[in-house]
Write a structure and sequence with these properties.
Length: 306
Amino acid sequence: MGVFVFLPLVLPLSAWPVARLAEGRLHPRTATRLLTAVAVVMAGCSTLCLALLMVVGTAQLPGNPLPDGWSDPEVRAAVPHDEIAGRLSIPALAVVAVLCGRALHRHRRVTRRARRALTALPGRTVAVLPDSTPYAYALPDRTVVTTALLAGLAPGERRALFAHERAHRAARHHRHLLAVHLAARANPFLRPLRTAVRYTAERWADEEAARSVGDRHTVARAIGKAALLSVGTPAPTPAAAAASGPVPRRVAALLGPAPVARSWPSAFTAAGLAVWGAAAGTLVSAMSSANSAVTLFLILRAAAPL
């Protein structure tokens, strides 16, 4: 395997330029889907890489339950600096498991808390909470908004707000956000992708709201007002778990022309460079992980036939 076994761990370093190009040059829908897919694949590859290294490292520990043949020199020779890399991968993989587990637990806890707040309002796709704290968020099955936020918006801006939250629900943005959040926990080099997807998901909902309402300026005003009214929202509220993205950039984008949706732009453009670069990096990471997994499996099977 050689040094290529470490490639999936460092390839996510390319996430920053890819995220910058994608969020600024691609249609928000395309960027959200692309960056989410790249983050999930790269996180899976880097986790698989740690698992492969852990097998080599665990096999060298005294009293381990693994076959004795897995600690033979032939097996260790497959990984450069096997003693260091193998043993460091054990706590690294444990940290990844703990961080991802905590993120999932927090996600479920916040969702349960939000649903408990809506138990008195069953069977509705829109829930208006009598709350003096202005906030709004979208659950998979309903939109939640408080009376305090609605009081600060004009009728047209309220329609824009509801259209924005409906777009979040229709596109299942909570799945994209959770996926990139877990990916960033698995590999910290993927944090730029998490930040970018938070922004592009909001931009996607903004564009859908603008198309539904038919007035980009009204949506821009609604976003700006909602952001100003929601400043200082307490952290325990479910709304605090949803990132609204950089509001000035979103407003500026809405005040400009609507983005053109392109499924696969030309490689000779900035958008095409982002797409092809992300695809190439993901493919290399996946191929490197698959090659390392197959190679190590064959070596372990030869050392200790199952």
